[in-house]
Amino acid sequence: MKNPSSSLPPLFKGIALFTPGGDLIYCIDPSKKNRWHLNLCAVLQEWLGLIEPPHFLVPCYTATVDRWLDPYTGQVQTSAIASASVLRYQALLNAIFEIEDLTWAIAPWSEELCHPMVLATYRQQFPQLWENHELIVRLESSADEGSIHPPNLSPKLRFTLSEQTPTQGYVLRLFVSGHTGATERTLKTLHQLLEESLGYPYTLKVIDVSKHPEQAEQAHVSATPTLVKMWPLPVRRIVGNLEDQDKILNLLGCLNS
C-alpha cells in the first residue's frame, strides 16, 4: 500500500470529501478524471454502513486542489477551492496534499444548496455522518478504471505529516440484544480473540438493537448476535453462534480459505 504522506506526482488533481462529523476521505489522481466524487460517496456508504451513497455531501462538504502546468509560462500552478463548511480544515488539506501555506478560496456554490437547514434534513437518515470516527482515508486508484484499493487509515491527523502513522485496520460491528450475561461472555471472548489474532488495529462498535433498531434495519440485521466486518471490503457477517473462533478468523481473513 502507498503511504498517504509519500511524494505526490508533480501534476495532479486532489479531491477531498468530508462528513459533517469531521471524517475525511480523499484521492489524488494524476489523470484528473471527473468520477471521483461518486467513488468517494460509494466508499463512505460501505465504510459507515449507510443505506445509500451520500451524494448530498457534494458539493457542500468538498475541497478540490489542482496542480497544473501553465502553457504560457511553463510554471507549475496550484489552485484550490473548498466549500465554506470545510474551510476550517485548511491545515489538514495542505498536509494531505503536500501544499505549504496555501490559502483556499471559497467555492462559489449556491448558499441555498448548502444551507445548514437543508443539510440537516438528512441527519435522521444518515446519523453516522454526523458522528466523528476520527477517520482520514485515502482512496487509491489502479490501472483498472473500475477498481479501487482499500484505503490507508491514519489516527486523527495532528496537522503535520511527520506525525502521521498510516495503518491498515478493521472496522467491526457487533449487534446484540440487551446487555445480558450471554452478551458479556460474547464480548469477552471476541475481544480476547481480536487482541490475540489481529496484526492490525481494529474498531469494534457494539450496537444494542433494542435501543437502536434503525441501525439494525440499515445494516439488514434480523437476528442477534451478528458480527459484521465493515472493512476491509467486502462486507461480511456471522449470525448467531460466535463461539467458533475459526469461523470468525476466516471472516476477518486471518485464515486461508
UniProtKB/TrEMBL annotation:
This is Circadian clock KaiB family protein. It comes from the Bacteria. It comes from Laspinema olomoucense D3b. Residues 173-254 form the KaiB domain. Pfam families: KaiB. PANTHER family: CIRCADIAN CLOCK PROTEIN KAIB2, KAIB-LIKE PROTEIN 1.
